[in-house]
Amino acid sequence: QVQLVESGGGLVQAGGSLRLSCAASGRTFSSYAMGWFRQAPGKERKFVAAISWSGGSTYYADSVKGRFTISRGNAKNAVYLQMNSLKPEDTAVYFCAADLLITAQAMSVMPPGGMDYWGKGTLVTVSS
What we know:
Blueprint: E1 3-7, E2 10-13, E3 18-25, E4 33-39, E5 45-51, E6 58-60, E7 68-72, E8 78-83, E9 92-99, H1 104-107, E10 117-118, E11 122-127
Parallel strand pairs: 2-11
Antiparallel strand pairs: 1-3, 3-8, 4-5, 4-9, 5-6, 7-8, 9-10, 9-11
């Protein structure tokens, strides 16, 4: 059974940091681009960051550039999102996604929803 399981969400004050993790299981994800998306209450799901299968290319939404960093584990079956200088507007459920054919660059521009696999999300709440 293929699964993506996010963890690391929680409540943090503005200016603080969190590190999200996404553990992939059920198959080898070393050839998959992986990404993070988020959905705030009452809003559409939006792209946050993506990383290529090799880990050599990364892409970020303008709203998080310079504050968030995406990375992959050595075995390529995990992806992380280091979030620094958090703002109240970063409050959302954060989802991990993986896709074999869609590149990380394409993830950054195409509407979310067409990825092969999605996690169930982890809630990040940033208080002011």
